[in-house]
Amino acid sequence: xxxxxxxxxxxxxxxxxxxxxxxxxxxxxxxxxxxxxxxxxxxxxxxxxxxxxxxxxxxxxxxxxxxxxxxxxxxxxxxxxxxxxxxxxxxxxxxxxxxxxxxxxxxxxxxxxxxxxxxxxxxxxxxxxxxxxxxxxxxxxxxxxxxxxxxxxxxxxxxxxxxxxxxxxxxxxxxxxxxxxxxxxxxxxxxxxxxxxxxxxxxxxxxxxxxxxxxxxxxxxxxxxxxxxxxxxxxxxxxxxxxxxxxxxxxxxxxxxxxxxxxxxxxxxxxxxxxxxxxxxxxxxxxxxxxxxxxxxxxxxxxxxxxxxxxxxxxxxxxxxxxxxxxxxxxxxxxxxxxxxxxxxxxxxxxxxxxxxxxxxxxxxxxxxxxxxxxxxxxxxxxxxxxxxxxxxxxxxxxxxxxxxxxxxxxxxxxxxxxxxxxxxxxxxxxxxxxxxxxxxxxxxxxx
Amino acid sequence: xxxxxxxxxxxxxxxxxxxxxxxxxxxxxxxxxxxxxxxxxxxxxxxxxxxxxxxxxxxxxxxxxxxxxxxxxxxxxxxxxxxxxxxxxxxxxxxxxxxxxxxxxxxxxxxxxxxxxxxxxxxxxxxxxxxxxxxxxxxxxxxxxxxxxxxxxxxxxxxxxxxxxxxxxxxxxxxxxxxxxxxxxxxxxxxxxxxxxxxxxxxxxxxxxxxxxxxxxxxxxxxxxxxxxxxxxxxxxxxxxxxxxxxxxxxxxxxxxxxxxxxxxxxxxxxxxxxxxxxxxxxxxxxxxxxxxxxxxxxxxxxxxxxxxxxxxxxxxxxxxxxxxxx
Lengths: 448, 327
Fold this sequence. Notes:
The structure holds two protein chains of two kinds.
Chain A: E1 25-26, E2 32-36, E3 46-47, E4 54-55, E5 60-63, E6 72-73, E7 78-87, E8 93-101, H1 119-128, H2 141-144, E9 155-160, H3 169-176, H4 178-192, E10 197-202, H5 206-223, E11 229-234, H6 243-251, E12 266-270, H7 271-283, E13 289-295, E14 303-308, H8 313-319, E15 327-332, E16 339-340, E17 354-359, H9 360-363, H10 376-380, H11 387-395, H12 399-404, H13 415-419, H14 426-439, H15 442-446
Parallel strand pairs in A: 1-14, 9-10, 9-12, 10-11, 13-17
Antiparallel strand pairs in A: 2-8, 3-5, 4-7, 5-6, 7-8, 13-14, 15-16, 15-17
Chain B: H1 17-39, H2 41-64, H3 75-85, H4 93-108, H5 121-132, H6 134-137, E1 141-143, H7 149-154, H8 156-161, E2 166-168, H9 172-177, H10 185-190, H11 202-214, H12 221-236, H13 241-246, H14 250-257, H15 268-288, H16 295-312
Antiparallel strand pairs in B: 1-2
């Protein structure tokens, strides 16, 4: 009997991996693109182009202003139409560059394979590539490659769990580019001086695991050395791909509250992130395209598409088959953690991995009822919190209670809200609770 | 185009509070059938009266308090059913209605309705009734023993022929305390003994329990700790533990009353503490108390401790949860 690695807690939403066997289709016919100057979790980039400028694929159009940011490149060749401020879906005001594509996709002169000789030049190249974690969080990858002294990771974990329902973009990545995934993994191991890597794949994607295992065997046979990378099957349970959960499942190391993977000697990258690294080292083309899964009851046909970053969601939907019915809800990202957008003229960004379009029925939100204290949220919470207590405390703005019940440990995975029979908006309420705690003076927060 | 905007997650499980209540009702059906079969029409009438009035009281009190109508969540039906199963078949109907009033209006709605009552409504009603109407609440009855064991097992037609007269009898626990002749284990398991409507047929309750566990409505941590503790302590006290487990309201209490979501702890550790406490109190009352029934009192007492148990058993967050780092 095979024992699959896992963590405790979690939920089993219906997989809905309808696009499993839909090879990625490259779509290029977008004439109007909007590239926001913030596609990472740090401060926004400074726009360096102005209306009328001619830009080409891979040309820098936004420069980072702080460490937690990476440059932003044009994904097409064409003319900058306008640069204006917009309200993003998170409520912040950001600069957006609108480009009219000439559909020629001519590469910028600066595009050439980076010269990498050591760790420093590797990290610099990753920064220049504009790479952020492609799993969904948007954390600048080059920052992950710089652990504080003494905390150098001894293992590289590749996240191919893809536990979100609907999304198959990473699965397609494994099926279509296993060679580049292995190459990217080896590059990271080489420059970061890590001697072993583990790729975690949920056991509902046996094909991905098989393809990667074959590739690993092939790669190391050719080099005539013992394989340094292994593929581990994980139990299919949401949120298996959450950073802390996956680290625990694969290594049994628990990342403490408020700590990062390097605190337990781990470097974790998404499978699409390492594949990009391989491709970037070969071509020098920065992060300008993204593979996204399109699915949901509102679409005519589900698909996996490869589109330029900045393509507008309605254009992408139209190019991929159009709407089956009037959309009730459009989600950037997965059904468990994605963000529902309030308008249509939103573009595909770097860490987008899915666009879900729900019809009216699927989009309807159940009414909240009274908590019956069934405890299902507690059983489901992968962080072992008490969501229903946090919910009440957040609503009552009970600062001491929120601290006592560890509100800041919540990873907002949505398991509690998913299982709640009373249909309470637990995550929403807990997010408010976290925001409330952040507003308090620092000394109050750290006081026990 | 109107787009729905809401906080993630955007998909929900099928489980609803109403469905959970329906599952409990389904799980109680075998016990209801068994009680009507054993006690006859009297049992059916008591069940109909408490369940009906529980729903009516729920409707009226919500209306009077100007709150939304909550009878659709089926929790009043569950309370009414559980109350009936905790009453003797000979209970005067007006007393049954009083019990239903206490459970729904006083214990449940006055504290805020579903999710807010601090003790189990049916259990509290039963205890108040036991104290208020001690004679009526302890007048146990069984069908006249014309249901010979042989007829029961061999010829099902004769069951329909048996009279449904109820005769007074003592409960097994009373018999145990007085060293009288006691029914066999099999009689206890099938329900050929004195007792309340629902607590007597362990066989029927077990069917319901299996259903609840399969449907993941309850976990077994609490009831098994509870029953195990009772067995252990009564054994240590020199009595037959199996007899204690099979008799009285222990099965009904442990699996259907103590596991009530609202009034029992939410964490696994809390459920075990709750089960231990219930078992300890039940066993002490049964071994040393003047009354035979420890189940109701123990559950009621532990209900009041539930908020404290929840506070003692806040789980340690994944990764230790020591820091409250900002951001």
